[in-house]
Specification:
alpha/beta; 8-stranded mixed β-sheet; 7-stranded mixed β-sheet; 33 helices; 17% strand
């Protein structure tokens, strides 16, 4: 007991402090050279300026060689105990450590010893939470390092720019940023934090980040690190409008780069002219060579102000040694209770003002604070050899509201998506203006415009290689539009692309933006030839000629037999002979008689002898057969002319051989038929294997003895015929082959999406859509696998569907399309009932021409001066007209005098 009391009294006596003279212990890490250099300059500044009235008797420096907290604590305790036993124990602790484990050990030492202390690091990851934590440790002051404060601007910029992804690249000058995992907390953005100093290849790193769809890059580091990262990027790829670059540094200098087309936001400390001059003087006077002014100033000011604060503690006589236990460190290692701390070191620190200070410190009531400094925000634009720097704002740490930026859009990345497409009317149509620029229109482009207005992004459209959707080969490799998405060359794939299982394995799809679309058949429309005199084509021209010759010959024979027949040899009186001669048939009468006998009307007078009867009977029989044949043939001919061997379904195509058919190469239609054929072949092989298994008994094998293969080979035949016909590469080629068909029964039929075929039919009346749609699939927007914009696009599409705006787009591009043709007359021609004027209109033409000829003849004979019968007929009495026979009246017709 006596020995312990003697030791205690000795310890108290050697710790009695003379005026303004005290001891300090500095805790640091060997790698933290900047802190050591700045602290040495601060101590030199104190020793040189006697006016500050600070005298240090013993300075204990403990540097940690690694991040082992236990080893560091033992080392500190050992140094502390040695100096206490020597009567030179420390009174003030200055903690400059950065490593989390070492920092925790230093904090434990400070709390165990109960000495006034200052620390330049926080021990938690969430800075905002750390600053707001309540504590009553007035003896313990914690200052936040600038490199822990500066990264907070990333969160502010991310919120202001509404970023969706960000890569944070840092070096050792911002080594603590790796524990700032709460920078983008509660922000819907992906963040990737990478220490660039452990990266083997910066160029490879940038390529990998680009493949991960990261378009915003925050570089936290020295100017040398920033230049290396910028120069390692492809200047033509990473500095487009869709990329955002933010260079954040603690160094004071200008940014230089070998790239010649850059626009970025450069953020660096802005001490102001007065503080800059102060620091320049400190550099020249105390050998501060670091390029990071703000970090050196932080350590320098923290050390100087701590020493001045403890000097004030001594001057106020508030330092009472009896209130503190100065026993060995090992005695408190496992202690759960601490001695009372009555020194309000925080208050004295806040009261210190020294003109040499770089910037003031802001101290929270809880004893935690930070340097109040300013960061300058500059937009740096490099075009060729010209570099333009524009100051756009300032930022002061501690409050997000303190950000003052003129225009964040000038430096933030613009969301520009690359859209790969396949030209398919009316979904996507490409035009070239007079200046040679490509312009895209169509249903999908209008859809893209609506979505971009809802979400807020820009886009660039380009056509997929070979203008193809892309198919998977035997090795699982894709091409076309799908490959562009897989290679991350495009962000969005938008065209009439159907959602299939194999495509969903390699790309993402949004909710369908178009109803279920099936495949249909496009064929050349059956356009029957029409003619007003088509009724004449019921018989060939040589038949009509023979009928005409026969008619003239029969009329001539009838006239000749009437003149020369036996009735003229019979004895008659002179009056009877005169009457018979008057009643003889003229050639005109014979022609008329033969003509009228072909109709139900019949003639007025006939022959008077047997040869004439025989001739007339033969002519009647001939006429009956000709009229009957013509009537029957005309009916059949008109019916056949309206009938055609129609293809109504896919089965009809498979049953015929006159029409070739195929889908577009690489389309979903091709995949459909190929897969269906493979399935049929697989089933056939399994059926054969099942039938010819050796282990089957005779009875079991007899169960498989069928008369024909039980599964249809429809698609196998279809796919074989398609390959033989040759698959067209594009829809334009397919339509051209259809139009080149000789008829609807001889040529080519295109099998494709029903929407595309329906559009082709409304812009070309020579095409027709055949049969019902089959193999229906929805249309969706293709995206990269695990694309972050999928949900956003889904919401936009659902919004458009609910507002029925997509229905309106369908009306615009199908029903109201300016390219639409009026094809109603074609529909009339292909109806299967009724006879139309276009086929027998010649009959009306003939009757009109006959009536006009009759009217012309009437006028001609009425004014004919040689026609004497007209006047005699007028002057004859009623009695003479009554006594005249019917034959006389017929022969007195005015037409007789120039026909007979």
């Amino acid at each position: 007991m006596l020995l312990w009391l003697t030791h205690t009294l000795f310890t108290i006596s050697i710790l009695e402090i003379s005026a303004n003279t005290f001891n300090i212990i500095i805790l640091n890490e060997k790698e933290n050279l900047l802190a050591g250099e700045s602290t040495a300059a601060a101590l030199e500044y104190i020793s040189r300026n006697s006016r500050l009235e600070v005298k240090l008797d013993n300075i204990i420096v403990v540097d940690s060689s690694d991040c082992d907290g236990n080893t560091f604590y033992k080392t500190v305790c050992h140094e502390y105990d040695m100096n206490v036993e020597a009567g030179r124990g420390p009174h003030l602790i200055i903690d400059l450590t950065r490593c989390r484990e070492v920092l925790s050990a230093a904090k434990l030492f400070i709390q165990k010893m109960g000495l006034p202390a200052i620390s330049t690091s926080q021990e938690t990851t969430d800075i905002s939470k750390w600053l707001s934590e309540e504590t009553n440790q007035e003896f313990y002051l914690q200052l936040l390092h600038p490199q822990d404060m500066i990264p907070q601007i990333i969160r502010i910029l991310a919120l202001a720019s509404e970023l969706t992804s960000a890569a944070i690249l840092y070096d050792e000058s911002f080594g603590s940023v790796i524990k700032s995992d709460c920078l983008l907390r509660d922000i819907p953005a992906r963040q990737i934090v990478i220490n660039v100093e452990v990266t083997t290849s910066l160029r490879q790193l940038m390529v990998e980040l680009r493949e991960l769809d990261v378009f915003n890059y925050f570089v936290l580091g020295s100017l040398l690190t920033a230049r290396s990262i910028i120069d390692s990027s492809d200047c033509s790829t990473y500095y487009e409008k869709k990329f955002g670059w933010y260079i954040i540094t603690q160094d004071d200098g200008q940014l230089r780069s070998s790239c010649r087309n850059i626009t970025l936001l450069f953020i660096k400390p802005d001490p102001g002219p007065i503080n800059r001059e102060k620091f320049i003087n400190l550099q020249s006077s105390y050998s501060l060579k670091t390029p990071s002014h703000i970090t050196s100033a932080f350590y320098f000011d923290a050390v100087v102000k701590s020493l001045l604060a403890f000097r004030s503690v001594l001057a106020s006589n508030s330092w009472v040694t009896s209130n503190f236990s100065h026993s060995l460190c090992a005695d408190h290692r496992n202690s759960s209770s601490f001695d009372d701390r009555t020194v309000d070191f925080k208050r004295y620190f806040k009261e210190i003002y020294e003109p040499v200070m770089y910037a003031p410190f802001y101290i929270n009531p809880n004893g935690k604070g930070f340097m109040d400094f300013t960061m300058r925000l500059e937009v740096v634009t490099i075009q060729g050899d010209k570099e333009d720097v524009e100051r756009v704002g300032v930022w002061r740490p501690g409050s997000e509201a303190s950000l003052n930026l003129k225009n964040i859009d000038a430096v933030s990345s613009r969301t520009i998506y690359k859209v790969v497409t396949v030209l398919q009317q009316p979904f996507v149509i490409k035009t070239i203006d007079d200046a040679g620029n490509e312009n895209f229109t169509g249903y999908c482009i209008d859809l893209l415009n609506h979505i971009s207005q809802i979400i807020g992004f820009e886009y660039e459209v380009y056509v997929a290689p070979d203008n193809s959707f892309g198919t998977m080969d035997e090795k699982g490799r894709w091409g076309g539009l799908i490959k562009e998405l897989m290679d991350k060359k495009a962000d969005i794939g938008l065209t009439s692309l159907s959602i299939t299982a194999e495509r969903e394995n390699v790309v993402e799809f949004t909710v369908p933006y178009y109803d279920l679309v099936g495949m249909s058949i496009l064929m050349k429309r059956h356009n029957p030839k029409t003619s007003h005199f088509k009724f004449l084509t019921a018989m060939e021209g040589d038949v009509w000629l023979c009928v005409l010759v026969t008619y003239v010959f029969a009329s001539f024979l009838l006239w000749m037999f009437d003149r020369l027949g036996p009735r003229t040899m019979v004895s008659h009186s002179s009056e009877e002979l005169e009457l018979l001669n008057k009643e003889s048939l003229s050639l005109k009468d014979c022609l008329w008689f033969c003509m009228t006998s072909l109709t139900p009307q019949g003639g007025e007078s006939g022959p008077r002898n047997l040869p004439g009867y025989i001739t007339l009977g033969t002519w009647w029989l001939f006429g009956f057969i000709i009229i009957s044949s013509y009537t029957a043939n005309l009916a059949a001919f008109l019916t056949v002319s309206r009938m055609d061997t129609r293809i109504q379904s896919l089965s009809d195509l498979a049953k015929q051989s006159g029409i070739q058919y195929a889908p577009i190469n690489g389309s979903s239609g091709m995949t459909y038929f190929e897969r269906m054929a493979d399935i049929e072949q697989t089933f056939h092989e399994k059926w054969l294997n099942l039938t010819f298994r050796e282990e089957l008994s005779d009875q079991e094998r007899a169960m498989f003895a069928v008369w024909e293969y039980p599964i249809s080979s429809k698609y196998t035949r279809l796919w074989k015929a398609m390959k033989e016909a040759g698959l067209p590469s594009t829809q334009e080629e397919a339509v051209e082959r259809v139009l080149a068909s000789k008829s609807s029964t001889d040529g080519f039929a295109y099998i494709g999406d029903g929407t595309n075929i329906r559009y082709q039919c409304i812009i070309n009346c020579d095409l027709q859509m055949v049969g019902e749609e089959f193999g229906k699939l929805p249309l969706g927007i293709a995206l990269q696998k695990n694309s972050p914009i999928k949900e956003t696009l889904n919401k936009a599409i659902v919004h458009l569907l609910n507002q029925r705006r997509l229905e309106k787009l369908k009306e615009v591009w199908w029903d109201e399309n300016p390219e639409r043709k009026d094809c109603e007359h074609h529909d009339d021609l292909t109806k299967e009932e009724g006879i139309y004027l276009s086929n027998i209109g010649g009959v009306y033409t003939l009757i009109v021409m006959g009536m006009m000829l009759a009217c012309f003849t009437l006028v001609f004979e009425y004014y004919d001066p040689n026609n004497s019968n007209a006047s005699s007929t007028t002057e004859s009495s009623d009695k003479e007209r009554a006594s005249t026979s019917s034959t006389d009246r017929f022969h007195s017709y005015p037409f007789q005098h120039w026909i007979d």
